[in-house]
Structure formats: structure tokens, C-alpha cells
Specification:
By secondary structure, this protein is of the alpha+beta class. The protein has nine helices and four strands; from the N terminus they run βαβαββααααααα.
């Protein structure tokens, strides 16, 4: 059993997508980030960066005590290695997957995240910031589209944790001011993953957990006003 500390963000969706694909039993523990649950001591003991997702593996492979992990990319790698699924054992194929996993963690996620912030949540519309992040998101979509021109998935012909990491950051493409019609190979890949039964189940869980996905003014203060003092 995996305890999943979760909220309905792109990084949260990555882990539910994996767990649904792998058929692993898991228990969702909602972390209502707009209400400040991420600063509770019991969560910080698992995720010291006060960000979701985090997991506690109640039955780690070594048979030892429950194992906590934070950071979505590290969680995907851990679960893939534990289950032997969605991460190749061949060194070259594995390297392809890990490069694209890190590409998402270091590039697409942070840039699209800033896109979301300045386009949707900033109290004032700053043209330079909006253009900077919308354009960089567009460039990254172009990188991904080119990559997918001659292969089914980002690391080759098999679906992997790299695809699971990237997909949730493409899902809000309209809010990122991106048109998938401009990226036909990416659009084909996106439609393929969206239709996977595990993806459908993962997003259905999100709808069950968060029935009011809008961000209130109070929630913005919690989400965007954090400093070191927020950690207590």
C-alpha cells in the first residue's frame, strides 16, 4: 500500500497516473495547498520542501520501516524501479527516459508553472513576464513536437515515466496560451495518453478529491506569499 499525499496539480497527477497504470493499491491523503496543509508538521516530516506530491511506501522492497519520499520525479523513478514497470532495464533506453524526465522537471514544469502564475494568478498583468513564459512554453512544446515526429513516446516506442511526467503539464495547454494544432506530433501523443484507461481513472480521482478547483483570493495568499518563515 502506498499513502499518497496529493493535490490536484500537474505534479500530483503524475503519481496517480503511475499508480493507476501499475495497478498498485494506494490511499490518497489530500493536502489542501490553498488552505496551508503543506505547512503542517506531519506533512513537513515527509516533504520538507512543503510541496506535493509525497508518498509513504508502507511495504518497501527491503522489508524495513515505511519509506517516505518527496519530489515527483524521484517518486516516479522509485515506483518504476520497485515495480519493474515503465522504466527500461537496458542502460541506453533507461538513459533516454531519464533525460526526458529531467527535461520535464528542470524545464517544462518550472517554465509552464511560471506561465500559469503570470497569466492566471498575478495581481497585475505584466506584459514582459507573460511574454517571457508563454514564449518559453511555446519553445518547449516545439522541442517535444520535434522529438515525437518519429516515435510513439518521448523515449521511444514504449510508454514510460517520462511520458507520465510530461503529460499533466501539457493538459492545461489552453491556459498556457498554446494551441495543440500547431504541434501535430505532440497532439497525437497527447490524445493517445488522454485515452489510456489509467489516465482517465487518475483524472477521475482528481475530480473526486477537489470538487472546487478554482483558486480563491485567500488561497492565493497562502500559495504565493511563502517565505522561509512559512516553514515555522
Amino acid at each position: 500500500m502506498i499513502d499518497l499525499y496529493y493535490w490536484t496539480t500537474p505534479n500530483g497527477h503524475k503519481v496517480t497516473m503511475f499508480l493507476e497504470e501499475a495497478g498498485i493499491d494506494y490511499n490518497i491523503i489530500p493536502v489542501r495547498i490553498g488552505e496551508g496543509d503543506q505547512f503542517k508538521p506531519e506533512f513537513l516530516a515527509i516533504a520538507p520542501n512543503n510541496r506535493i506530491p509525497a508518498i509513504v511506501d508502507q511495504a518497501p522492497a527491503d522489508g524495513g520501516a515505511p519509506l517516505p519520499l518527496f519530489e515527483s520525479g524521484a517518486i516516479l523513478q522509485y515506483l518504476a524501479e520497485k515495480t519493474g514497470q515503465f522504466l527500461p532495464s537496458d542502460a541506453r533506453e533507461r538513459a533516454e527516459v531519464m533525460q526526458w524526465l529531467f527535461w520535464q522537471m528542470g524545464g517544462l514544469g518550472p517554465m509552464a508553472g511560471q506561465n500559469h502564475h503570470f497569466v492566471q494568478y498575478a495581481p497585475e498583468q505584466i506584459e514582459y513576464a507573460i511574454n517571457r513564459y508563454v514564449n518559453e512554453t511555446n519553445r518547449l512544446y516545439g522541442v517535444l513536437n520535434k522529438r515525437l515526429a518519429d516515435r510513439a513516446y518521448v523515449a521511444g516506442e514504449h510508454y514510460t515515466i517520462a511520458d507520465m511526467a510530461i503529460y499533466p503539464w501539457i493538459a492545461p495547454h489552453a491556459r498556457q496560451r498554446q494551441n495543440l494544432a500547431d504541434f501535430p506530433h505532440l497532439a497525437r501523443w497527447f490524445a493517445d495518453i488522454a485515452a489510456r484507461p489509467a489516465t482517465v481513472r487518475a483524472y477521475a480521482r482528481a475530480a473526486e478529491v477537489n470538487t472546487q478547483p478554482t483558486v480563491s483570493g485567500d488561497a492565493k495568499n497562502v500559495l504565493f506569499g511563502q517565505t522561509a518563515k512559512s516553514l515555522g
